[in-house]
Amino acid sequence: MGKRVHDDVLDGALGIVRGHTTKMVACSAEPASFSAANGSLKLAEVAMSAADFSIGNGAASGRRVTVAQKLGVAVTASGTADHVALLDEGAARLLYVTTCTPQSLTQGTSVNFGSWDVEINDPA
After folding, report:
1. Can you tell me the distance from the alpha carbon of 109 to that of 99, in angstroms, rounded to the nearest whole number?
2. Secondary structure of the chain as H, E, C letters
3. Sheet of 53-57: strands edge to edge?
4. Which of 46, 84, 67 is closest to 118 using CA atoms?
5. pLDDT score recorded for residue 1
6. Rounded to an integer, what distance in angstroms lies between the CA atom of residue 39 and that of residue 31?
């Protein structure tokens, strides 16, 4: 028996990311909570809105939301960024965390967040 999922189901999950993310942060380790991502692990932050996300077909299957690049983001604390987190500040939710290429950041400088994707594949 095969498995199927309608794009609307996957888009619903990705729509939470698009519709509720208010901040993207570079973190010095994997945050386990909103408080950690928005507090002691935060090295840089940038405001986000729904316009910073676009939903479309996945690279292999399913659907994905593409996160827009953000250039010249102020670094607020020194450390090595190795994770990026998407936050919903209004509900104090950690919506999504991913790894990034480790980069040494120095307070008072700036960093660029390249474009990246959150992808949900079709069931196999």
Report:
1. 21
2. CCCCCCHHHHHHHHHHHHHHCCEEEEECCCCCCHHHHCCCCEEEEEECCHHHEEEEECCCCCEEEEECCEEEEEECCCEEEEEEEEEECCCCEEEEEEEEEEEEECCCCEEEECCEEEEECCCC
3. 53-57, 63-67, 116-120
4. 67
5. 72
6. 10
User: How far is the C-alpha of 108 from the C-alpha of 10, rounded, in Å?
Assistant: 39
pLDDT < 70 stretches in the chain: none
Report the Cα 120 to chain-centroid distance in Å.
Answer: 14
Q: Are strands 79-88 and 93-105 parallel, antiparallel or unpaired?
A: antiparallel
